[in-house]
Specification:
The protein is α+β, with helices and mostly antiparallel strands. It folds into 2 domains: 32 residues; 109 residues, no CATH class. 26% of the residues lie in helices and 42% in strands. The protein has 3 helices and 9 strands, in the order αβββββααββββ. The strands form 2 sheets. Strands 5-4-3-7-8 form a 5-stranded antiparallel beta sheet. The mean pLDDT is 89.
Length: 144
């Protein structure tokens, strides 16, 4: 403390409170970050995401030749899945027995692997990853 200056109990308390609030804000901010590893084609990337960010997987179904779009979010697991495609392709995946999006809505995964013979694209955190005749793997590393 500089000479001639005396810390009052009120100032010391405020300094402690500010440090405490800063710590809590930092912890809150960190709790919102999701760390995701994307691996494919011999490369690996690490992304920091927020739980409300949307991920997209786009690919052509190799049997019907039609586009399939899957969307999900990285909450505490990869979840909130939705699929968009034509009725014929949906029936290919479900056998026409159940509504695909109702089944997907229950999914909660820490790891996802998407493979495609015709190629696929994954949009995550403003970046796009692609695989041709291969796979992309996503792992939610944080929160544990």
């Amino acid at each position: 403390m500089p000479e001639g200056k005396v810390a009052t109990p009120g100032k010391a308390l405020w300094a402690r409170l500010l440090r405490s609030w800063a710590l809590w804000l930092l912890l809150l901010a960190l709790s919102l970050v999701r760390v995701v590893e994307v691996e494919g084609g011999g490369q690996r990337a690490y992304l920091a995401l927020f739980p409300w960010e949307e991920a997209r997987v786009e690919f052509l179904n190799s049997v019907t030749g039609r586009l399939v779009l899957l969307e999900f979010r990285p909450f505490f697991r990869f979840q909130d899945f939705r699929a968009y495609t034509d009725p014929e392709t949906e029936a290919y995946y479900t056998g026409g027995v159940y509504p695909w999006n109702q089944a997907l809505a229950r999914e909660r995964r820490r790891e996802l692997v998407y493979c495609s013979e015709l190629g696929l694209a994954l949009g995550l955190g403003g970046r796009w990853f692609r695989a041709q005749e291969g796979c992309l793997r996503l792992r939610l590393l944080f929160p544990p």
